[in-house]
Structure formats: C-alpha cells, structure tokens
Design a protein that fits this description.
Blueprint (H helix, E strand, L loop, with lengths): L3 H7 L4 H11 L4 E2 L2 E7 L10 E3 L6 E4 L5 E5 L4 E7 L20 E7 L4 E6 L3 E5 L4 E2 L1 E4 L1 E2 L2 E2 L3 E6 L6 E5 L9 H6 L5 E6 L6 E8 L2 E6 L5 E6 L4 E6 L8 E5 L7 E3 L5 E7 L9 E7 L5 E6 L1 H4 L6 E5 L2 E5 L5 E6 L1
Parallel strand pairs: 6-10
Antiparallel strand pairs: 1-2, 2-28, 3-4, 4-5, 5-6, 7-8, 8-9, 9-11, 12-13, 14-15, 15-16, 16-17, 18-19, 19-20, 20-21, 22-23, 23-24, 24-25, 26-27, 27-28
C-alpha cells in the first residue's frame, strides 16, 4: 500500500510540479506496439487498490477510496456497488477519501471454494463479504490484544482457506503514512487467519510498512513487501527454515504482490528516474520465488509519477491498481 503523501514526504518537490506532470503523463493510451486501455470507475470513485477476479471473462472486484467494494461486469463494461464494511455507511460517503466513517478496502482475495471475498479494510480490520455482497462481516479487528491500525495486504490459500494478511503499522493509520515514513516505523505485522479455528496468529513482527502479501500454492512460504525500507522478504511457513525469513528483493516502495498461475509473482514498485531523483517511475516486476527478476515493465507513460499499487495477470493482460487513479489500467504487450 503506497500513498501519494508518503512519496511527497520522501521527495522534496512541490505539489504544482507533481500535478502538472500527472496531467501531462497520465493520459496517453498506447506506446509503440504496447496496448493500454482504461476501465473508468464510477463518478467520484478513485483508488482501485487491488483486484479479485471472478471469472476468466475479466469480471473482478476492487475496493475504492470511499469505502465501497465495486464489481466490474465485463460484458457491460460498467461497475456495480457490491459491498462495504462501515456499519453506518451512507451514500454521503460516495466520493470521500479515507474517511473512518466510510471505510477503506485495500487488499482483497476470493476463496473460490466458498465464494467468500476476504478484505482488509484499513479502518475496520479483516472482513469477509459473502456471495451476495452488502454489509460485510468483520472477522478480526486486532490480535494479541493489539488493534489493527492499518489492515493492508491480503491473500488466501485456496486449498486450506487460510488467510494471510498484514497490519502495516501498529502506530499509524492510512491518513498518517507520511508520518510513518518519516519516523521509519517498524511496527507492522504479518498475520494468519485460520479457516477452521477462526483464530488469528501473529507470524512476524517489526516489519516496516508491510503492504503486499502472497502465499505459495503449497503454503511453503509467504512473500511480504516492506514499503518503508524498500524490500521484499520470503517468510517460511514450513520446512527446516520455518518461522525465519530471507530478503529476496530490494526495490523502492514495493506494494502488492500477486502470484501467477506459473508460480511466479508480480510485484508493484517504483524505480528511480535517472535524470532526477525526485520523480519515481511506477513499475511492475515479475520475479521468481527466489527473488530473481524475470521482467520489468515501466508504467510511467500512462501513470506519470502516480504509484501503481498492484499488478495482477489475467488472460495474458496485466491489470493495474493505483490508490490515486480514477480508472483501472489494462496493459498488454
């Protein structure tokens, strides 16, 4: 999970410069032979952080900044309201950004066997939406006597139904990310929700802005990105290295991590602009479980300096999330 303010806090540049660059760089549709299209969000909606695909036709669910989970009906090319977690949410929330009274869905993943959508709501915690949507159920709002301040990344192990997720900070919520970055906060946690016992276990503590999480198909390990210190780790769940971790990738501002059908992983991150260090370029990296990079895709021509929060592969296309864009990007080379 990356916020625009967090980049502002780390980069000494002015808001007018960022605004101008975003306007100029964000809205082209193709570069050379690469195709790039946009799926616009409903009016006032912004910030499609992550995706959960419902079918190979391209139907998916995504959370936006005003607290809603939206469903894309691909044939109609339109979004429908699907669910939310704020118990007193009203339509007045539509268009608001990061309001605790409205909720803020971040990481999400579908458990295909039960058709349950698990969601990290930044304000309310780990929740679930049943197949019909509507008001979701909060499964956990804290662990080990400590309330979640920023429930963020999430993945579901399809065979067991267990949910792996992160609490990005124990001190700061989503509105305070610049402060967390400035303080070099390292109070984040990796957690596991057990499908059978309904209990949450803390697997790893003292993480620096853990944003993305992806579990291996065989639940041998979990990959976790740490936004604040710019690294991705492999935390071992089984085997002789169980409960230890390896640093497998160093890339600035890593966010969501998504496993592909081939067993590799797409990591949303940024690279430094060689001409000026004040302008990070959003990228996606396809990496092996070992961390070796197979491919890097530059999304700067379409997003400018806006961070990309997720890169997820579906049917040969890359679907791009961003906490600041009013659209979902679809990239194909």
């Amino acid at each position: 999970m990356i916020t625009y303010n967090s980049i502002m806090s780390m980069k000494a540049t002015s808001a007018p410069i960022f605004s101008t660059l975003i306007f100029l760089l964000c809205f082209s549709s193709t570069v050379l032979s690469v195709s790039f299209t946009k799926i616009p969000l409903p009016l006032k909606a912004t910030g499609p952080e992550a995706f959960a695909f419902l079918s190979r036709a391209g139907d998916f669910l995504t959370g936006v900044a005003d607290g809603r989970v939206l469903k894309l009906v691909s044939q109609a090319r339109r979004f429908e309201d699907f669910g939310f977690f704020a118990p007193n949410r009203s339509k007045l929330c539509n268009g608001r950004v990061n309001d605790p009274n409205c909720g803020r869905p971040l990481g999400l993943a579908l458990h295909h066997a039960t058709k349950r959508l698990y969601v990290c709501d930044a304000f309310y915690g780990l929740g679930v939406l049943e197949g019909e949507g509507g008001l979701g159920t909060i499964l956990s709002s804290g662990a080990d006597g400590q309330r979640y301040r920023l429930c963020d990344g999430l993945d579901v192990h399809q065979q067991t139904g267990d949910v792996y997720f992160t609490d990005a900070s124990s001190n700061y919520d989503i509105r305070q990310i610049p402060l967390a970055v400035a303080k070099n906060d390292s109070t984040g946690r990796l957690l596991k929700y057990d499908f059978n016992t309904k209990q949450v276990t803390v697997l790893l503590r003292n993480l620096s802005g853990p944003g993305g999480v992806a579990v291996d198909k065989d639940a041998q390990f979990v990959l976790v990105s740490e936004f604040i210190i710019g690294r991705t780790i492999k935390f071992w769940l089984k085997g002789p290295k169980a409960n230890t971790y390896d640093i497998i990738n160093s890339q600035p501002m890593p966010d969501n991590v998504k496993r592909t059908e081939s067993g590799n992983f797409w990591l949303a991150a940024v690279k430094r602009n060689l001409t000026t260090l004040f302008l990070p370029i959003p990228i996606g990296q396809l990496v092996k479980a070992s961390g070796s990079v197979l491919k890097t895709v530059d999304f700067g021509p379409w997003y400018g300096v806006i961070p990309v929060s997720e890169v997820q592969e579906c049917q040969g296309k890359l679907y791009l999330g961003s906490m600041f864009a009013p659209f979902v990007g679809v990239y194909k080379d």
